Each structure stands twice: as C-alpha cells, then as structure tokens.
Amino acid sequence: MDVNWTLFTQYVIIGVATGSLIALIALGYTLVYGIIELINFAHGEVFMMGAFFATTMIGISGVTDESSGIAIIGILLLGLVGSMIFSAGLNYGIDRVAYKRLRNAPRLAPLIAAIGISFILQNIGIYWHGSNPFTPPEIIPLEYRSMNVLTEWFGLETRIRVRPFDLFVVGVTIPLLIGLVWFVYRTRIGTAMRATAQDRQAAALMGIDINRTIGVAFLLGGSLAGAAGMVALYYNNSARFQMGFQYGLFAFTAAVLGGIGNLTGAVLGGLLIGLTWSFSDGFMKQYVSGWGAQWTSSVIFAVLVLVMVFRPSGLLGEQTVDKV
Amino acid sequence: MTATTATAGRARDARANDERRIPWGILAFAFAAVYPFIDSALGFNRLGSWLAIMVFVILAMGLNIVVGYAGLLDLGYAAFFIIGAYGAAFLTSPGSPLVRNDLVPGFLQNFWPALAVSWLIAAAFGVLLGAPTLRLRGDYLAIVTLGFGEIVPSVFTNAESVTGGPSGINRIARPPTIPLWGGNEISFGTTDQRNWYWLILLVAVLSVFMITRLYASRLGRAWQAIREDEIAAASMGVNLVQTKLLAFALGASFSGFAGSIYSGYLTVVYPDQFEFSVSVIILAMVILGGLGNIYGVIAGGLLIQGFDRILAEALDTPIQWIGRQLDIAVIENHSVSTDRLLIFGLALVLTMLLRPGGLFPDRRRRAELVADDESEMDAANEQAYDVRAEQEPTAGARA
C-alpha cells in the first residue's frame, strides 16, 4: 500500500492544529480533576460560551474584513482576552453556585449537578444565538482565509497547505501552555494548587486556603476554554450551542488518554486525539472504502472506552488504587 | 446470627413499606386503567402522549436498578433502548436484512417472540458493556457508559447498508390480534390506541412488581450493600462482579423490552430517537423522583415526561397571551419547548443542591446522600462502621 506522504503531512498539520485546541480544553478538565476529582461535565459548555461571547463582542465592535489591519488584529486579541475572562468568570461562578456546596457530598452528586449545568448552558446558548449553526462575524480578509503560508510567505514549492488559521491556533496555544506551566510550577498559588491536588487535608493544615485554590483552578481552566472557544470559532468558521458537547467529550478523552490530573498528559492526549480526528476525517477514506468523518466520533469514543478499560491511569498518569 | 436478624428486620421493613403503600398503588393503577374513558369523555385526546410517558416511566424504573439500587451511574442508558428497538425491527420487519435473507425463522418474526429475544439481546449487551468496565470507579464508569451511549446510535446511523441509516427501519410487527368470545377481539392496529395503552400499562405494572420483588430479594440487598460500600460488601461475601453485572443486565433488559414495545407501537425505529439527551432525561426522572425509591422514580417520570409531552404545549397559549397583554415580543413568540434543556438541567442541579435524595427519597439512600463529612468515602465508611459496630464489633477492623 502506497502512502501518500503529501496528504499524510497535510493531515498531520490539521491534526496538530485541532489537537492544540483540544489540549486547551483538556487542560481545564485535568486541572479541576486533579484537585477535586470532579469530571466537570459542563466544561465543554464553558468553551461553547467563550465562542458565543467572542461572536457577540466582535459583532458589537463593528470591525469588518474591510477595516484596517491593526483594527482586525486588535479585535482578535481583544476577543481572545474577552472570551478568556468571560469563560473564566463563568467557570468560577459555576463552581461557587453549584459544586462548592457539594464538596463533601458523595462523588456522583457534583457530577450529576455538572450534567445539569451543561444542559442549562446549552439552553442559554439557544437563547443567545438560536439553535442553528451560525458563522462568526467576517473580520478576516478573504485572501487570508485560504492562502497557503508555505508558498506565499516562504516561497516553497509544495502542495501541502498551511493556512494562517493553523498558525493562529498554534500561536495562541503555545504561549498559553507556557504561561500555564509557569503559573503552576513557578508561582506561589500554583504551588498551593499542586499541594492541594496531592493532599487536600495536609495542604489545609499548612495554611493553604483550599476554596481559593480550587477557585483558581476553575478560573484557569475556564480561561483556557474561553481562548479555545474563540479560536475554534474562527478555525471552524462556525459555532452552535451543541459544539461544546463534542469538543468537551473529545477533550475529556484526551485528558484521560494522557492521564487525568497530569498537565503534560493532557497536551499529549490532545495532540493524539487531534491527529486521530484529522486522520479519521480525511486520511482514512483514501484507504478504507466507506470510511468518512461520520465514523470519527465512534473511533474517539472507542479510544475512550478502551483507555478506560485497559489503562484507566492513562499514558502518563500514575496507577491509583482505590483507597479504603 | 446478628446478620440474620438484620436481614429479617430489613425484610420486615420492606414488607411494612409495601403494606402501607398498597392502597395508593391500587388507586393509582385503577385510575390509570380507566383513564382512557376519562380521556375520551373529556375530549383530551392525550392517550398517545400518556402511552409514551409510560414507556419512559418503565425506562426510568430500569435505570433506577442500575443507578438507584446498585449505585452505578449509567449515562448511556438509551443505548439499550435503541438495541431493544432495533432487535425487534431486525427480527420482524420485512425490510430488515436478516428477514430479507431468510435468516430469521418464521416463528420469530412475530411481536411476542421478538420481544423476548430483544429483551435477551439488550440484557446481553448490558453484560457486554458491564463486564470490562466494572473495575472503574463511579465517575469513570459514567463516562464510559456515555461513550457507549454515543457509539451505539452513531453506528446505527452510519452502517446504512444494514440498519437503513438515519431513516431507520419501518414495518415492525405489532402484536397479533387476540380473539375473544362472541366475535370480540383485542387488536393492536394504528387505531387501537386504547389497547396499546392497556398493554403498556400492564407491562409497567408487571415491571413495578418485578422490580420491587428484586429489591427485596437477596440480590437487591447485595446491590444496596455495594452501593453503600463496595469494599465492605466484598469482604462480607458479596460477589461484586456478579452483582454488578446482574444490575447492568436487568437494568438493560427493561430498557430493551420498553424499546421493542415502543417500536412495535410506532412500527418504525430510527437512531435520532435516542441521542444523549434521552439518557440524561431518563436520569433526570430517576434523580428528581428519588434515587432508589421506585415510587419516587415513577413520580419523577410522570412529572418530567408530563411536562415534556403535555404541559409544555399547554403552557404556550397562556404564556403567549401574557406576552400579548404586556406587548413583549419575546414572550409573545415564546415556545416552552425551547426551554426543555434548561428545565431538565435545573431539575438535576436543584435536586442535587436542595434535596439530594429527590422529591420522594428512599430512606436508606437518603442516609447515604446526606453524608457531610470530610469525603464521601469517609462518610460511607463511618456509616458502615456505625451499623456494624452495633451488630458485630469486630467487623469494623479492616485492612
């Protein structure tokens, strides 16, 4: 079987771009799970809300694809920061309203509450932008939407296409990842987060404010989801109230695949899921007749089920034993 | 010896419970049984909605076995509904590939045998899903079942050559007409909604009977034991694997035959009937009503489905009327059916925050949910410890 390497590289590029998006969302799951062992089921909807907020914000700004370059770049950055703040606040608020009161309840209680919250947010999404898919305000000039960076900027003779959007996704993701790692490993509150994740009671005895630390985890996770929402909005050029469900589950799969609670694992898992996604969507049908994008979610859920069953600790996670 | 006393005491409790409830149960059943006459006398024409509501109540009772009794959170319960429905479709529809290729023996191509077979198929899938996932902790299990619940409908949608794709399979067999004396008969055609109503009511009542007997049985007590403390249950001699698998299989089987009856009534099955929100709606019914308490679950099912299928529509007119009086366009054009997700979500969140046992909590289940110690594990342990300390002081010491 001949492998079409041009196509292969193309789907690797798409996979890395999608994968970084998924990694941003997966980090939110992992941060929260690492500290309070809650699968924040509503996290995908926080991501969706970020995309919706960016749509509204950019719509209000009145910037169009005919505005000046500075205005466009400015509103993109502003939209990014805005949706990060919005989603961070939303995630924090959800924790305060719903999960905080269930901190000492049985494990399943906050999970069920989280499912409820995700439904509520989806319905708010319907009120906000209707139940049909919509496209974001067009602020990217047409020639940038489909141009090939490799040929136009680097003058390479190649059929592999890298769009400015692909660069945008990776360009937003990498600084955020570096910032997150710096925050978690180099700041005082990051250290407090890691301590709380290790042993909540011992951390509290050392004088760490547990609720504040948990709140910070929700803020961080929310802001990453907001950034991912804004980026996904333009990367996919469409949004819908249900977008959080699919992205959320894929990202959760990524977090589990990498080892939930492990930051590096979430990024690795995100990239792997992104690659799986892009290869199942496009590459596989060259070789498997009848294959297509419609099978992607089945494949990713199958990955989820298999990882859960055979290696619940994930690729980089530690083996955990049910304690008495 | 002490354990026997406790068991006998629990059985006595259960009996006392039953005795107290019987008049209400019979009254409710009598009302449900004569409802078709009331419905047509008052001109409601709501029998079709009630029929669907009862099917969902059966689903909620089945899910209650898994979530309420055994404490295993299953987020993909609708998958078994779809498996039961497609089971009946594959066996009885002349359009199914199995029937077309003469792979189904003639006697199976009828409603009742197909019902029995798809019941078994759903139970088998319950075991199939349960077996590899039982080692997982509660929340992981929830996500795996969710994944399963997503894969099943999507496979039925995508494997078009076998399943008919998004449009599904139609011409599913209905129950044969039952001849009665003097030329009367009970038939199950499209116009015989009353007979369908009574058939499903009968199935629902049988389900209630079966499930309450199960809950009071040795198996039912084993479910409660693993729900309250798995490790303690195992060390008391409960076979975890077998008990959990039976919960999955029995829960799935109720979903399966509800699915095949419903598909027989509709005579058509297609994958879009069973998306994730269906699983969550069934879960909301169980949780709102009261995890573990079958009567609460029935009430929760009637409330949520009643809202979804009857009240939501009925509320539109008054709300739009108010909107016209106040001259607010948003309210005037509002349709309550667009608030569905919000209301189901609120039902879940508010129940968890305000009344974790549900509207009609199960007594024992409530004792678990009100745990308010350092962590659930500690609380559950402590409680188990307290119970055992009274009965058998040595049982508290564990590895």
What can you see in these coordinates?
The complex is a heterodimer of chains A (324) and B (399). With 324 residues, chain A is mostly helical. Chain A is 71% helix and 0% strand. In chain A, helix 2 runs antiparallel to helix 3, helix 3 crosses helix 10 (210-236) and helix 7 (164-186) packs across helix 8 (188-198). Chain A is globular. The N and C termini of chain A lie far apart (53 Å). The mean pLDDT of chain A is 88. Chain B has one domain (46-377). Chain B is 72% helix and 2% strand. The model of chain B is unreliable at 372-377 and 383-399 (pLDDT under 50). The chains are: A mainly alpha (324), B mainly alpha (399). At the A-B interface, helix 4, helix 11 and helix 13 of A face helix 6, helix 12, helix 15 and helix 17 of B.
| Average residue pLDDT of chain B | 81
Counting DSSP H or I runs of 4 or more residues, the number of helices of chain B is: 17
Spell out the helices and strands of chain A N to C: HHHHHHHHHHHHH
Radius of gyration of chain B: 23 Å
N-to-C span of chain B:
24 Å
The number of E-state strands of chain A comes to: 0
Number of domains of chain B: 1
- Basic shape of chain A: globular
Distance between the termini of chain A: 53 Å
Helical amount of chain B: over 70%
Percent helix range of chain A: over 70%
